[in-house]
Automatic annotation (TrEMBL):
Residues 299-375 form the B5 domain. It comes from Candidatus Roizmanbacteria bacterium GW2011_GWA2_32_13. Residues 573-664 form the FDX-ACB domain. GO terms for molecular function: ATP binding; magnesium ion binding; phenylalanine-tRNA ligase activity; tRNA binding. SMART domains: B3_4, B5, FDX-ACB. Tetramer of two alpha and two beta subunits. It catalyses: tRNA(Phe) + L-phenylalanine + ATP = L-phenylalanyl-tRNA(Phe) + AMP + diphosphate + H(+). Binds 2 magnesium ions per tetramer. PROSITE patterns: B5 (PS51483), FDX_ACB (PS51447). SUPFAM superfamilies: Anticodon-binding domain of PheRS, Class II aaRS and biotin synthetases, PheT/TilS domain, Putative DNA-binding domain. Mg(2+) binds at residues 353, 359, 362-363. This is Phenylalanine--tRNA ligase beta subunit. It is found in: Cytoplasm. GO terms for biological process: phenylalanyl-tRNA aminoacylation.
């Protein structure tokens, strides 16, 4: 935001050069992004923090500079200039106008002035506005713009005679939400179609202003205007921001209201503009309206309890009572000592950023100067860092999948597809919903990469969001295999095998988890609790040009919860193993688990491991081809081929006898 050095000088209680001013701003307040010398003035471009709406004006910046200089002993008393004292002296005066707040404003006040004379602005006013790049229009418009830049309170001037009258020739204004498809033409002639999310100022016939952003053309003042209504209000910051962003309509007023300026400024701004108009444009004060209770908006805010030892602890510097009181005085914060080392403080109305003890401590540190606080090494006792089990297992899963040939991908948590939770102010229309799973993101990755690769494996760690009674955020691991060559059944077996391998590596036994059918996918359960799902989809169903996919998604927290951290170590085998394969045909109804049971039963302790490594079934046949790899080992001796062949043949005979399979 731009500020004039000459303008600021009239409020600063100490003679200060532009260079000194820039240094103070940078060290104690805000970053100065640039200084430009312009017509015997210096224009400062200052980056105001979003929570300091009180500094979006020349008075606000001057108030802070005075506090800093005062703390440094260069100013004896707190701001003595009338404008910085925040005194409100206007008295109510009845008239022929009234206003009603239906929704969207904390407070509202207005004044009606008759017999005003619209002329060219005086030189001092032109110079101030021109220094900040604003062209002079006429004395009324210029004075309104001056007050915004000076006090930080946006106001709007209506041509009173253009406002629609009701009974007894009275003007009635409403601050309300716009009706759907309600239209208003603003200054400059552009028309906007509004809805209930927008605020308007309306008369008896309809909107005359997009509230807090820009006035309407139909009620704008002109060279023939001599009867005006000045409106000063404090509008809902969220609504002003959303409307300004929606229409890309950014004004000084919309910026200030979007920063949630204190409502107390609406009274001070009105009084300042009324007095300036009466002085520079003449006229008679016909009516002044404000609710008496709104004067409370200028009172000090709720108290905060402050402990001196807490200040010293956080800042790393001993702060005594004298230093603390001095800082509070120049910041215009009321202080009352409760007992030794404990104070009750009340921030002024305009410091809405001061709400907790730490906020006050930050102010003390800022005025004291962080550059004046010596560096002190933290007093800590070195100790071994505790192991984070979740991070360790997350890293373990990642390494396991990488070793299986997977690549890790990262996707946004915000997606385009409609989901349960929609972001109120999305940065992009394509990123406005919170995702509910990882798999859809992995499929989108696949669609993008299918033109470059015939097959690949990808996985992602990420957070998903579920709608229950409240928003639930969970961390998941999702993995996907894509292939243009492999059959969908082969891909399903491959991802199932990888999942089995992961569970085994994490210490789960086969009986610890169950993978079973649930709707169109396979459910993964541990201890009868569902922790994820497993599935496969052909290219006809997944939107891919060519190729099939298989995938799984697991809740990481639930998976880790059921891990048995105790490990059993086995002595490496002393005797070699012998491998054999069984290839067979089965028919509909024969389960793989039944085949495995027969192999384990007949083979007994000599069967160390069995793996299914091939499955094929013709689409038009009930016959299924299966192939199993069996590892034989005796822990007490070396098996001979003859012994293994006898046992292997016995297993084949039992399979044919019990399950009616056909050995290939």
């Amino acid at each position: 935001m731009l500020f004039s050095y000459n303008w600021l000088k009239q409020y600063i209680e100490y003679k200060i050069t532009p260079k000194e001013l820039a240094n103070i701003l940078n060290m104690y307040l805000f970053e100065v992004e640039g200084i430009e010398e312009k017509n015997s003035d210096y224009i400062f471009n200052i980056n105001i923090l979003s929570n300091r709406a009180d500094c979006l004006s020349h008075q606000g910046i001057a108030r802070e500079i005075n506090a800093i200089l005062g703390f440094q002993g260069k100013i004896e008393k707190i701001a003595t200039k009338k404008e910085l004292k925040n005194e409100f002296t206007l008295k109510t005066k009845s008239g022929k106008s009234e206003i009603e707040i239906e929704k969207g404003a904390k407070c509202c006040s207005f004044s009606v002035i008759s017999k005003v004379k619209i002329n060219e602005s005086p030189k001092w006013l032109k110079d101030y506005l021109l220094s900040l790049g604003q062209k002079s229009i006429n004395n009324l418009v210029d004075l309104s713009n001056f007050v915004i830049l000076d006090s930080g309170q946006p106001l709007h001037i209506f041509d009173f005679d253009k406002l629609k009258k009701g009974k007894s020739n009275k003007v009635k204004l409403f601050i309300r939400e716009a009706k759907n498809k309600e239209k208003v033409k603003i200054l400059g002639g552009k028309e906007y179609e509004l809805n209930k999310n927008d605020l308007v100022v309306a008369d008896l016939e309809g909107p005359v202003d997009i509230a807090g952003i820009k006035g309407g053309e139909e009620t704008a003042i002109s060279q023939n205007t001599n009867h005006i209504l000045i409106l000063s209000a404090n509008f809902d910051a969220k609504k002003i921001y959303n409307t300004s962003k929606k229409f890309n309509l950014v004004t000084d007023a919309s910026i200030i209201f979007s920063h949630n300026i204190s409502a107390g400024f609406s009274l001070l701004g009105l009084e300042q503009l009324v007095n300036l108009i009466l002085k520079e444009a003449g006229g008679e004060l016909e009516q002044v309206f404000f609710e008496e209770k709104n004067k409370d908006l200028l009172k000090y805010r709720e108290h905060i309890i402050i402990r001196l030892n807490k200040i010293s602890s956080i800042l790393g510097k001993e702060i005594n009572e004298e230093t603390f009181n001095k800082a509070m005085y120049y910041l215009n914060i009321k202080t009352k000592k409760e007992k030794t080392g404990i104070f009750k403080v009340n921030p002024p109305f305009y410091r809405e950023d001061l709400n907790i003890e730490e906020d006050i401590i930050e102010e003390v540190g800022r005025l004291y100067g962080y550059n004046n606080i010596s560096l002190v090494a933290p007093k800590i006792s070195p100790k071994r860092a505790e192991l984070n089990e979740n991070l360790e297992w997350r890293s373990f899963i990642s390494r396991f999948l990488l070793n299986q040939g997977f690549d890790e991908v990262y996707n946004y948590s915000l997606i385009e597809q409609i989901a349960s939770y929609e972001i109120i102010n999305p940065l992009s229309r394509k990123r406005r919903f919170l995702r509910e799973d990882l798999i859809h993101g992995l499929i989108e990755n696949t669609k993008f990469n299918q033109s470059y690769f015939d097959e690949f494996k990808i996985f992602e760690f990420g957070h998903i969001f579920k709608r229950e009674s409240v928003l639930i955020e969970e961390e998941k691991i999702g993995a996907l295999i894509f292939s243009k060559k492999e059959k969908i059944t082969d891909l399903l077996l491959e991802i199932r095998g990888i999942l089995d391998g992961l569970f085994e590596a994490m210490g789960f036994d086969n009986e610890d988890y169950v993978i079973s059918h649930k709707d169109d996918i396979l459910s993964i359960k541990v201890n009868e609790q569902e922790i994820g799902f497993l599935g496969a989809v052909s290219n006809q169903d997944n939107g891919l040009k060519k190729g099939n996919i298989s995938f799984f998604e697991i809740d990481i927290a639930m998976l880790i919860k059921y891990i048995d951290y105790e490990r059993e170590f086995e002595e490496p085998p002393k005797f070699p193993a012998i491998d054999r394969d069984i290839s067979l045909f089965t028919y509909h109804g024969v389960k793989i688990t039944n085949i495995l049971s027969v192999i384990q039963e007949i083979g007994g302790k000599l069967v160390e491991d069995v793996n299914l490594f091939d499955v094929y079934q013709s689409p038009d046949s009930d016959k299924k081809s299966l192939a199993f790899h069996i590892i034989y080992r005796d822990k007490n001796k070396t098996l001979t081929d003859k012994e293994v062949n006898v046992l292997h043949n016995k297993i084949e005979k039992e399979l044919k006898k019990r399950l009616k399979v056909e050995i290939r």
